[in-house]
Amino acid sequence: AHAEDVGTSLYFVNDSIQQVTFSSTVGVVIPCPAAGSPSAVLRWYLATGDDIYDVPHIRHVHANGTLQLYPFSPSAFNSFIHDNDYFCTAENSAGKIRSPNIRVKAVFREPYTVRVEDQRSMRGNVAVFKCLIPSSVQEYVSVVSWEKDTVSIIP
After folding, report:
1. pTM of the model
2. Around 148, how many Cα atoms within 13 Å sit in the side-chain half-sphere?
3. Comparing 102 with 129, which gets the higher pLDDT?
4. Tens of pLDDT, residues 40-72
5. Number of folded domains in the chain?
6. Nearest to 90 by CA among 150, 45, 57, 24
7. What Gene3D superfamilies is this protein classified in (predicted)?
8. What CATH number is attached to the domain comprising 31?
């Protein structure tokens, strides 16, 4: 070890961030999951290795290494920005480390209806009901109970 290396380090604060899903009406702030001593220079990149640049009122990288995606309207959606893989690097005199890719995905708030599929069965027989959730929201909605006339029948 060299004298200048004493007390230097680079480390991951949280390397378990793999996906960030956010509402287009709220936006999101994503801290770089790395740090160091002395203070590391934090930078964000697309998974392709391309540098991130600021897009006014859309995307901004703060001086502290935080990536911010601002709220936006559906007409301002850009898959290059709002549905892409990013990663962050931390660099200081100890070296340079790279975070795993982080999937960033914006979702839109839109009305939807969950319904029960019609079934036919003879009295005394078993009927199997299926909850139909629109595919556009399926990964964000889960069935937590079944009700009949506002009374829970299956918790």
Report:
1. 0.72
2. 3
3. 102
4. 999 999 999 999 999 999 999 999 999 999 999
5. 1
6. 45
7. Immunoglobulins
8. 2.60.40.10
